[in-house]
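Q&A log
Question type: sequence-to-structure
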Amino acid sequence: MTQSSRGIRSFRIRVSVFYKKNHRTFPWRATRNAYKIFISEIMLQQTHVDRVRKKYPQFLKEFPSFFSLASASPRHVLASWNGLGYNRRALNLKAASEMIVNEYGGHLPRDRGALEALPGVGVGTSGSLMAFVYNEPVVFIETNIRRVFLYHFFRDADRAIADREIMPLVEKTLDIDNPREWYYALMDYGSWLGKTIVENPNKKSALYRKQGAFHGSRRELRGRILKYALSHGGYIRDIWAFSRAIKLPERKIREVYAIMAKEGFFPRSKKRR
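Response status: OK
Response body:
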């Protein structure tokens, strides 16, 4: 598809028609509550939507507001987050809630720079929050949006495409009157493309990296350490015994455990063997 005015119009029509016939429904799309949308956006970072759909109502029941999340213990938040992976997001979520309560009176700021200053909120998430919470016509890219533009405008490219080449097209095609719905449409269309196109268009992105195997990875070990700690008072008292139980070197476990402790996953005052 060309980047001409005619090509842009054709693109807009295609995405809009697809969305009218195939739009997805999610609980976070049925609300305008800033807190609920904020929770969904953090959960959706690097996590499949089906897992988020299941965990989302449970988490909101446990922590119904920025205030309740800010005042909760890290252990409580981590236990409630269990199953979503990338557990540092749970700690960032609590830290961000504390900032929102302390600095903004419990109200999500309506400023992209202020949003990006929150722990765990990057450029993409700040853009999605501005669009979905406040319906502001900001420009941002995430995985599904990137896939759509790569597929339609860079299909024949024989080189890696940087986001800076995609951003002008995102801006040019943006529905400034209803950006929230337009981004929903792009994401739904991108999700569909990801399931139907044999060759993933995102492989053309300069940011594309094939994820390594989970089994045997440090990420898996972090998950095992956290799961064990949460079921044993929030920390591991005897790392030697734990290493024997999971049949991994004690040195490796101590190294990862120390990193996680610095990140705030465990109490630092507890003595361990």
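Response note: The chain has three domains: 5-25+138-204, 31-134, 218-262.
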